Amino acid sequence: MKIATWNVNSVKARLPRVTEWLAEFKPDVALFQELKCQEDGFPRLEIEDLGYNVAIVGQKSYNGVAVLSKRPMEVDLTALPGDDSDDQARYIEAVIAGERPVRVASIYLPNGNPTRAEDGGDHEKFTYKLRWMDRLIAHARDLLKTEDAFVLAGDYNVCPTDLDVYDPQGFADDALCRPESRARFRTLLNLGLTEAFRALNPGGHQYSYWDYQAGAWQKDNGLRIDHLLLSPQAADRLNASGIDKKPRGKEKASDHTPVWIDLAE
DNA sequence: ATGCCTGCGGTTCGCAGA
What we know:
By secondary structure, the protein is an alpha+beta fold. The protein has 6 helices and 14 strands. The protein has helices at about 15-25, 45-50, 125-145, 180-190, 195-200, 230-235; strands at about 1-5, 30-35, 55, 65-70, 75, 90-95, 100-110, 150-155, 195, 210, 220-225, 225-230, 240-245, 260-265. Strands 3-4-2-1-14-13 form a 6-stranded mixed beta sheet. Strands 5-6-7-8-12-9 form a 6-stranded mixed beta sheet. The radius of gyration is 17 Å and the shape is globular. It binds one DNA strand through loops.
């Protein structure tokens, strides 16, 4: 079964790109981030028409995550546990039904910039990112105890290593590359999770995001920040993983492009 | 050194993104 993650950067502005990609790529499960709308603004009918069940956590203007599934699913969580005061729409978790069920989460991890007071105020956004990652680590620990097959996928806003950045020196102090962010990402891996794309594609210069500005796409000045992290039981079923660059080259593209895995049935 | 581009809200500019 194909499971893909895509930060669509506004599902309403992106609707033609989204529907053509779903019709062509035909993922069994699609995990979206940055919907930038509330649930009542989500183009539910257009997506259901393509054969998907839809579960959404929306928010006006910002954030917003969704799970699309061709198979029946059951939503388990609509927020990341660990902070009841956090009302940003960045997490949804569901179990996809089947002979061998798979638990999936669509994750929009906070960006965290600026990281320094001199670049704009305080450390509030970077601190929020790091606390959010701490909560994700705690939740992953809990999920691992179940020994279920699960996939935590989304826009992690972390370049795991310098292989994942077109300009490592220029991004050294960026929240996506800072040691504090990378250490927490590494902790997720050290719990026993497998980052699917890197496990199967050891080379660098393979990105999932290109800035809209300064011809970044044309120059391949990208970042690899969209990831699928697999539990051991899911990793045992990993057949393939890739980045589908085609949508990034189209008119009115998102600045991110889909990343996918294929799991044995 | 700075802005580059895009989307949103709500009005034509500020904020956020990464």
